[in-house]
Amino acid sequence: MSHLLEVEDLEVKFALRGGDLTAINGASFTLDPGEKMGIVGESGAGKSVTGFAIINLISKPGFISGGRILFNGEEISSFSDEKMRKIRGNRISMIFQDPMMTLNPVFTIGTQMVETLKAHRNISRHDAEKIVLEKLKKVYIPSPEKRLSQYPHEFSGGMRQRIIIAMSLLTDPALIIADEPTTALDVTIQAEIMDLLQELCDTDEMGLILITHDLGVVSQVTEKMAVMYAGKIIEAGATDQVVTNPAHPYTKGLIKSLPGMIKPGEDLYQIPGMMPNLTDIPPGCAFNPRCPVKEPVCLEKEPKLLSTKQGIMAACHMVGQ
To answer: What region holds the ABC transporter domain (predicted)?
Structure first.
């Protein structure tokens, strides 16, 4: 079976006055139909830029400066805007963290969904409305017929996010990229939205890339994951393996800082220090200023992503030491 998505040595730069800034440095991964993958890391790690690069939506001064992105075997990173529009929002959909940024406050939900569908398909309004209702039912919106004439502000945050998911499903995409889709929602609604995305992947063979800083969500939803730090993938593998047997000190720190990992009354663990600024990445391993196990080699030589005994890929000089 061929891969649904292949990202090979992806490099994204931002052209600034002082020279080009590398935001993504050689990221590679694959995704199969129906597979669920998590991309994890702190703010500024490059997770969202990776998602935007896949659908070629990086705004200037950013640009894809190297690597290849293959979708269903076709290299889409070099597609023209016009050609890309046939894929973006059609074969690949993206869900953003704030539904109010995606929904237009002055149009009803029905109008927005019908127009979205008509932008990608040559169908009548009547047929479009039928598909819209079917998708709203699919995401468990109660009495969807009534909802079509309502405006975004008449819905709760969780309902709005479901409507965004219904919108992203209108064209039966092969891949959904969800960028922090539950950040603005409370915990019970978060769980509902994640269950819904999982169900859609299982029933429709839809691929999912879940971009998040929340390792807890990734461990419940995805089959494989990649951990990003300062624009690089520093650990990757099957989710259960990475969560139970992390190889990289950064991943270990992320797992240790999960609330469920501490005894009642203990302080929550925090990785010391901050992610480096992209203009000021330290030599050697970018994580070295914050690393509890660093050695002299870590300050000089950049570690390569290599396979560990557990079959996880990790970029750390100390793995296996």
So the answer is: 5-255
Strand positions, DSSP E, the chain: 5-16, 19-31, 36-40, 62-71, 74-75, 92-95, 175-179, 207-212, 224-229, 232-238, 306-307, 313-314
Number of domains in the chain: 2
What count of other Cβ atoms lies within 10 Å of the Cβ of residue 277? 10
| Measured distance CA(272)–CA(22) in Å, rounded | 24
155 plus 183 within the same structural domain:
no
Does the pLDDT value for residue 261 go beyond 80?
no
Last residue of a domain, one of 137, 170, 203: 170
Q: Are residues 31 and 79 in the same domain?
A: yes
Q: Which residues pair with 209 in a beta bridge?
A: 37, 177
pLDDT of residue 36 exceeding 90, the answer is yes
Instruction: Give me 89's structure tokens.
Output: 């929002």
Query: Which among 146, 142, 211 has a CA at the least distance from the CA of 175?
Result: 211
Question: At residue 268, does pLDDT exceed 90?
Answer: no
Are residue 231 and residue 243 in the same domain, yes or no?
Answer: yes
Q: What confidence tier does 320 reach under pLDDT thresholds 50, 70, 90?
A: low
